Amino acid sequence: MAKNNKKAEETVTPKGRLFEYAPAPESPAAAGDIATSYGHFIGGEFVDSSGSEALKTVNPATEQVLAEFAQGTDEDVDRAVAAARKAFTDWSALPGSERAKYLFRIARIIQERSRELAVLESIDNGKPIRETRDVDLPLVAAHFFYYAGWADKLDYAGYGANPKPLGVAGQVIPWNFPLLMLAWKIAPALATGNTVVLKPAETTPLTALRFAEICRQAGLPKGVVNIVTGDGRTGAALTAHPDVNKVAFTGSTPVGRAIAKQIAGTRKKLSLELGGKAANIVFDDAPIDQAVEGIVNGIFFNQGHVCCAGSRLLVQESIQDELLDALKRRMATLRVGDPLDKNTDIGAINSAAQLARITELSLAGEAEGAERWSPACELPSAGYWFRPTLFTGVSQAHRIAREEIFGPVLSVLTFRTPTEAVEKANNTPFGLSAGIWTEKGSRILWMANQLKAGVVWANTFNKFDPTSPFGGYKESGYGREGGRHGLEAYLDV
Amino acid sequence: MSTVAANALGAAGGGLQDVAASEASLRRFLHGLPGVDAVGLEARAASLGTRSIKTTAKAYAIDLAISMIDLTTLEGADTVGKVRALCTKARNPDPSDPGAPRVAAICVYPDMVATAKAALEGTDIQVASVATAFPAGRAALPVKLADTADAVAAGADEIDMVIDRGAFLSGRYLDVFNEIVAVKEACKRPDGTAAHLKVIFETGELQTYDNVRRASWLAMLAGADFIKTSTGKVAVNATPPVTLLMLEAVRDFKAQTGIQVGVKPAGGIKTTKDAMKYLVMVNETLGDDWLTPHWFRFGASSLLNDLLMQRQKLTTGRYSGPDYVTVD
Question: Which residues contact A288 (CB under 8 A, 6 or more apart)?
Fold first, then answer.
């Protein structure tokens, strides 16, 4: 549009003063009782660790300690794997329709306790209640419902008659979607007849431990689900355990690589869902207002702590100014602050370590010559916070265009033609997701065929559904989670 | 007709003076507007609908919403008595609380304008009249212009016209444009002032969001002071996504031309909760500039009583119930 856009920007600023939203806080008490210290969940019981080392989990919005939890030892892992092995015999022998009953029951309990789980997740993780309530929890329940439906239909999943489970699955999950990643791991494993030992991330163990209560509430046979907490040492002990048949990991590419090395030469089956540096590609014929929403959702959803985040915006040069004006105007309306306020759009960064990494990479962006912009917004004094940030003038060589930042930082690059867009989008060691924004259907199909990414979204971004497989190309990992494809990772096929 | 068109656009500026020079140029312009992705638009409207408006913010929003209402009666059964009763309600919406804000306007058929005008004597409540063979708009242009002129002569402060949806849907954009320009001309009074012109699209008949964006730009280019969703007389009236789209259109139009245009969703907005969602959309799409009755209105009849009940609840702490607001 016209040149006077610049001037007009000053006259149309939706950041208003007249209609200020009063605080609308969700009650922290809705999270239920948080114990002062937690052990592990092994063989259907909450048990103490064999070791004495304890870690602390903090509320990243306040830096207050929420609880202590056990650092799982080799012995703890051994006990958990043994419990899972013991349970495997009966669990895998159950008819699929019986396993489905438990999964349906778990799904329903999750729905019934969704407010409690959403608040607990927000407190432990820092993500806004609006997202835990409207995205995480509905998806968690949906995932259990979906795989419950598969449990008695495995004969028809395309893997031949009567496909067999693998045995004991060792699962290690990240802190960005603690309960959702748990669901992605546990639901297909149980539906296919495996038993599991799951290690939640060391900054977000609380919802996994609450899930253990739900397993008891659902009457799940003892040992089918075991939860061992701790940091990377516990994770390494679990993935290395000789009696684990299947390793599933979601997290960073360096750790994924280490796990792949560790289990190379064993008979363990492995699926990895690792990092990403997704391109969100906006063509000049895109629906601009919706593209802006998609860009915002792509990179600022969950504080940008999303492996498939649209962290590289590739915009066609001819609409760059118009799009960036609109994007900045929209970013100025983002509400950063208390995760429990129902009107918060962007919550707290999950940990001090992650904040340090985001800060370091952003400084590198500036040092390498990219132009940094953030809307004016007040940040709380305590806790870990980072303003939604935009870098323009980014080139493919910049670190912020190559490395996963895993925070609310968007790098903007431009392209001239569809071919150049594809080249730039694919020019990364990662390949988890991509977005295309155009009103031209034929171009969407052509682009989707060219892009080396496990998920390609067209005129939307960060849309998840349990029926849809998710996973990466290249250094974003291998194996698929979700959908019929997600069964394969847990079947001996 | 082209001279009339040029005059209307003269004011617009922003490099748009020649857009309506011909049917072809107008079509090119309207079809060159960015498309609307329906899924994305609806998702954005729904997400704004989850804002939680509490305590002081709620009190502010309720009073603002009341002050933005075009209190409407558009029935074949309308009588002088009915219109007078509605005007009394407009002057004093809550008999139990004289501090309650007044509504923005009364909206009636042209033959009731004089009655409403007299009943509202001495207040700054506007009288809006539908015109141009409302609601279908199926009449010859001279009839529509006479309808408009009659309402203006009777004292209407605002005219709510309907566009010719048949012409729009068959691609005769310039006919629609010229008709708006002509009606705007008919809004002029002998003393040089003019009635405010609201242009109704009947979005439920335009059906697609692309059509709504095109109609918005068409009407704004032709000189509309307000763009309005619906007549309230078809199955689908104002919806949050359609209104959000129109808010985006007036935002973009101001960015390009410097001219500010108002927005009026009408029909189907019945509860305080609904009204809040609309105000949140205005707040987060347009901001302070539009948060006044001068630039945003609700076309509604039953909404007022629900707002009053919620207002009573906030002031007294008790929910009074429908017997404590007046039915007019």
Answer: A319, A322, A323, A326, B34
CB-CB neighbors (< 8 A) of B252 in chain A: 1
User: Which one of A26, A215, A307, A481 is the catalytic residue?
Assistant: A307
Residue with tokens 């002031």: B315
Domain range A276-458, its CATH number among 3.90.580.10, 1.10.260.40, 3.60.10.10, 3.40.309.10: 3.40.309.10
Sorted by where each starts, the structural domains of chain B and their CATH numbers stand as 2-324 (3.20.20.70)
- Which H/E stretch holds residue A434? strand A433-437
The third-level CATH classification (topology) of the domain covering A30-274+473-488 is Aldehyde Dehydrogenase; Chain A, domain 1 (3.40.605)
> Given a cut of 70, is residue B11 above it in pLDDT?
no
Whole-number pLDDT of residue B17: 84
To the nearest whole Å, the CA of A12 is away from the closest chain B CA by 6
| pLDDT tens-place string over residues A332-384 | 999 999 999 999 999 999 999 999 999 999 999 999 999 999 999 889 999 99
* For residue A6, pLDDT beyond 90: no
Q: How close A363 comes to chain B (CA, Å)?
A: 31
Enumerate the CATH 3.40.605.10 domain ranges in chain A, comma separated: 30-274+473-488
A273 tagged catalytic? yes
Q: Give the closest residue to A306 by CA, choosing from A354, A342, A260.
A: A354
The ipTM is 0.94
pLDDT in tens, A194-216: 999 999 999 999 999 999 999 99
Mean pLDDT over the full length of chain B: 94
Non-local (6+) Cβ contacts of A304 within 8 A are A311, A405, A406, A407, A408, A409
Rounded distance between C-alpha atoms, residue A47 and residue A76, angstroms: 10
Report the chain B residue with the minimal C-alpha distance to residue A340: B52
What is the dihedral sign for C-alpha B290, B293, B299, B303? positive
| Helix pair angle (B55-67, B272-285), 10° resolution | 90
CB contact under 8 A, B291 and A9: no
Omega prior to B34 cis, within 30 of 0: no
Structure tokens at A366: 């500036």
**For residue A89, what pLDDT is reported?**
98
SS3 A68: strand
Q: At B328, is the pLDDT very low, low, confident or very high (cuts 50, 70, 90)? A: confident
Rama region for A432: left / alpha / beta (φ>0; ψ in -120 to 50; rest): alpha
Q: What is the mean pLDDT of residues B314-327?
A: 89
Q: Where do you find CATH 3.40.309.10 in chain A?
A: 276-458
pTM tops 0.90, yes or no = yes
Q: Alpha-carbon distance B83 to B77, whole Å? A: 11
Question: Which residue of chain B comes nearest to A5, CA vs CA?
Answer: B255
